[in-house]
Design a protein that fits this description.
CATH topology: Glycosyltransferase
Radius of gyration: 19 Å
Distance between the termini: 27 Å
CATH class: Mainly Alpha
Number of domains: 1
Structural class: mainly alpha
Largest sheet: 3 strands, antiparallel
Shape: globular
Strand order of the largest sheet: 1-2-3
Order of helices and strands: HHHHHHHEHHEEHHEEHHH
Helix content: 55-70%
Length: 365
Amino acid sequence: MKISLCGLLLSSFLVASCGQNNASDSEQASTDADLQLAPSTHRFQKSWATDAARQLQTYYGDNALWNSGWWQSANALTAVADFMRLSGNRDYLWVIDKTFDAYKNNGFMNEYFDDNGWWGLAWIRAYDLTGDWKYMDAAMKIADDMEATGWDSTCNGGVWWNRSKESKNAVENELFIKLTAAIHNRKAGDDQYLALSKKAWSWFFASGLVDDRSVVSDKLVNCQKEQNSPAWTYNQGIILGGAVELYKATNDTAYLSQAQKVAYGTIQYGSSNGILTEATDGSCGGCNGDERLFKGVFMRNLREFYAVKRDPVVANYLQSNAETAWNHARSSDNFYGFHWNSGIDSKDAGRQTSALDLMNGLFAL
């Protein structure tokens, strides 16, 4: 179901401004103030992330991974690191160390460049939390491998999905954009990684992967956008985080303007009654383990976008999705289902990772 962006706004002032994308600084400050919750309400809602993180850890095994899978564990680690960084909680630092030590010898790389990119971003977050350069070193090695062995001139550029060169997809290229820009922002004196990120960004938006609604398609087929390609929510999200890192690197607001279009496209075309839905929403729990955490990736990156561009539409979307999931998709012991606007269907690490990413968004408000 399509929804109106204006329908997401909380006051008559905001509804009146829906057609205006360039509010003055004073108007923006007023709008943000209107959306602020009482401190006591914020304290209560931020406990939702604490509860979600605690239950996610019940899926963490002796093999130093969550039982959702390899790349899914990179996302779980990212969500947990974000929770600690945003909340000040340090209960799970040992998890980061244990996972890193268990798999550092393989460099967190396999056949799939998207898997590798997820781990690169996980170690960026571990570095942000701890300041330990070993995590940055791991992230840089992943980015270097993606550029050296994944990028070529086919389709005028872009990173392949895997080393067998089966297809060029949105996900690995978005991850490459975000990872390389993030490295630049943390590595003093860098020019190399920023150049790679900017090149990948230009290729991405020229590739045909983004349609005229600012909706990101899944992949290219014969260097053309795949027809009837599912608009997975994670593909709509990663590019937002890439835009944020590039904006921080360059101070060029054009990156945020493009990201805002993608965010609004998802809010309008990827929601039901104002709540984020997945392309396979009707079939889950029969959806696969990958799809169960896609929405959390979108919300993670939407939070990062909101942190640098205080957009009232985004603020309300973060808030309303978290409240709806807490009220309708949560068990009495704080596990979350797949459908945030209906009853809990099942429990697993993918669903819980997605929920933690969602609840982490409350720290930005």
